Recover the amino acids of this structure.
């Protein structure tokens, strides 16, 4: 995920606490085990998505498109619970932009509505439409896109022209190709791409159905290979696991950094409050599918998983072990109890958003200007996440770790700057 410019908050410096050193390795083992299981589950669900996409392209139908969409939705559940690992782990942060970057200028990939517009000063490739163009000019050179392959997407299209909005790979590129644009604004409804966008011959709608299928398959294949790689980084002998375990204090810092940064600057700020301030459905995380309520919920659950050292796998088994919660309880039981309560309160608030959306009050409807009920739902979760972050800061103090810096957001730290 590529963030907007951010500030640092919650910078705390204290001496390390040698009394806790003996149990830190066990806590870090659990942290790495949950990461490996989460990425492996994400891979399993992405492979199921890959099969559904192949079936759609091979034999297009309304049923096949719906099956692929459902597989995408299911793939998001374990992946969102891994997002906490992006903060504090350089290996994940350097990789994550390929798989979950947003928002994206979808006109780079495929056809868009006329209201979308064309190239802009910020992005000359905003309406490139690779699906419709087997060759195009990029940086003064002609690019051969006659075959749409993972190498083309990753090597030449993704972040083309050094523009972060040129997202050519990952979950959201696949999401757009399955749902199409959501043209409903803050009214109910997701994207409504017809299944005939993948039909052959005269039944093909919107042209280039074969190339659209090639793009969808290439993006999905790349997602699978990327998740396979990351799962390996957290397995025994993997580089991400080794990086966490080689320095116990740095490893504990990584856990706390992930908890605080995802809770505060990323989720409460960039993903939630900013959208309320702008009343903009384009600020939805899963904007094409109207799945944002689930993305927020499982992000929150990922923080709770790591703190408590518990993760429910897609096969129903549980990964569990010594956790940060144990260290905090040993250092200050009152702080531990407060943080547990704050995490529970956050999940209640996120659960209310999820329940409301599943009942027909979609997240983009909540963002509508003047929708007091929607704003109250979202801001209830924002406030809970901020309170949760303050409790995480108190845990930092209780543990006496060396240094923590949480990500911030203008929407929380300097709201006036959002409108400048």
């Amino acid at each position: 995920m590529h963030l907007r410019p951010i500030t640092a908050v919650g910078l705390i410096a204290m001496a390390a606490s040698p009394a806790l050193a003996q149990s830190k390795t066990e806590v870090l083992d659990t942290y790495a085990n949950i990461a490996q299981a989460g990425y492996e589950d994400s891979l399993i669900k992405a492979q199921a998505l890959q099969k559904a996409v192949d079936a759609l392209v091979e034999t297009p139908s309304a049923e096949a498109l719906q099956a692929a969409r459902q597989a995408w939705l299911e793939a998001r559940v374990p992946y969102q619970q891994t997002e906490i690992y992006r903060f504090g782990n350089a290996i994940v942060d350097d990789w994550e932009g390929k798989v979950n970057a947003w928002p994206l200028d979808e006109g780079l990939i495929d056809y868009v509505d006329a209201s979308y517009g064309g190239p802009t000063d910020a992005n000359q490739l905003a309406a490139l439409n690779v699906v419709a163009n087997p060759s195009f000019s990029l940086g003064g050179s002609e690019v051969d896109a006659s075959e749409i392959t993972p190498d083309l997407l990753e090597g030449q299209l993704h972040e083309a022209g050094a523009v972060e909005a040129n997202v050519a790979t990952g979950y959201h590129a696949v999401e757009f190709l399955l749902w199409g644009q959501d043209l409903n604004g803050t009214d109910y409804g997701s994207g409504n791409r017809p299944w005939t966008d993948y039909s052959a011959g005269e039944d093909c709608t919107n042209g280039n159905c074969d190339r659209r299928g090639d793009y969808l398959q290439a993006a999905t294949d790349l997602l699978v290979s990327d998740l396979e790689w990351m799962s390996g980084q957290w397995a025994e002998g993997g580089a991400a696991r080794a990086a966490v375990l080689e320095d116990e204090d740095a490893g504990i810092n990584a856990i706390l950094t992930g908890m605080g940064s995802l809770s505060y600057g990323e989720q409460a700020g960039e993903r939630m409050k900013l959208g309320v301030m702008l009343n903009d459905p384009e600020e939805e995380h899963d904007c094409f599918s109207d799945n944002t309520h689930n993305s927020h919920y499982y992000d929150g659950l990922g923080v709770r998983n790591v703190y408590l050292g518990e993760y429910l796998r897609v096969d129903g088994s549980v990964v569990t072990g010594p956790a940060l919660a144990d260290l905090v309880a040993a250092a200050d039981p009152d702080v531990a109890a407060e943080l547990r309560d704050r995490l529970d309160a956050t999940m209640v608030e996120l659960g209310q958003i999820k329940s409301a959306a599943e009942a027909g009050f979609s997240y983009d409807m909540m963002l509508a200007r003047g929708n007091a009920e929607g704003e109250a739902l979202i801001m209830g979760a924002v406030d809970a996440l901020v309170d949760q972050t303050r409790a995480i800061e108190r845990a930092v103090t209780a543990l006496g770790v060396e240094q923590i810096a949480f990500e911030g957001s203008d929407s929380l730290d300097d709201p006036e700057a959002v409108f400048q």
